[in-house]
Amino acid sequence: MTKYILKIYRGIPEKQYWEEFELTLRPFLNINSALLEIQKNPVNHKGQRVAPVAWENGCLEEVCGSCSMLVNSRPRQACTALVQEILDETKKNVIILAPLSKFPLVRDLVVDRTSMFESLKRVRAWIDADDALDRGFGPKISPQEQEVRYLLSTCMTCGCCSESCPQVSDRSDFIGPAPISQARLFNAHPVGALQEETRVRPLLEKGGIASCGNAQNCAKVCPKKIPLTESIAVMGRKATKQALKDLISLPDVK
User: What whole-number distance in Å separates Cα of residue 120 and Cα of residue 182?
Assistant: First the structure.
């Protein structure tokens, strides 16, 4: 049977170390399944019995975003990272796993992505409930707009875009690409459009859209292929208009 090695950067903050596990290659095995194998029998490459590797997983179908990690230095979802494909691509029998580096480490491959959810709060990434359903159907939306909005709605707050962004760091207040794209999504909603200003104004504040360095890494690594750079451009235009409006408009003039 073909063997391969998972080399994992694990541990707790300030006490991280590399540990290797030798596993048997099976058809259609993904990284999540490989980690489950280690969990069942946590014996490292040296034959030592160790604590099972901690990581997050949920849906196992690239919907929840919880299993984000660095696979050979690239941020991606472990559930769709097929071991055989990675080995074929690298021509090596070693796969390197590490936790995302832009979020506080909890343990092993688990990180705390609270900052992303706080950023979503800043841009009010939700639609306020009202009695609209009691009044029947809302306005019709063209298929073209539906297609764009559906793609934007597939964001799972996985953190891959923030991980790849050079502007996101512990020395920066940049909220990251995902919240900006979600502001675009909820402003496109007929009800959400009524609160557009409350979503755009936070993007004018410190850490907002002006902090984007246009590296465009986010769109390259997004598991759902969301056009993040397009969303940043769209919201950049809206932010400019809002800034001018706030500068010259009167409170009672729309």
Answer: 8
pTM for the full predicted model: 0.90
Give the domain 3-110 fold: Ubiquitin-like (UB roll) (3.10.20)
**Closest C-alpha to 88, from 147, 148, 45, 27:** 27
Give domain 114-245's CATH superfamily: Alpha-helical ferredoxin (1.10.1060.10)
User: Which residue stretches of the chain are H helix?
Assistant: 31-40, 83-90, 114-122, 143-153, 160-164, 177-187, 196-200, 217-221, 228-248
Please give the radius of gyration of the chain, using alpha carbons only, rounded to the nearest integer: 21
Q: What is the pLDDT of residues 181-213, one digit of tens each?
A: 999 999 999 889 989 999 999 999 999 999 999
Torsion angle, alpha carbons of 47, 50, 56, 62, to 10: 10
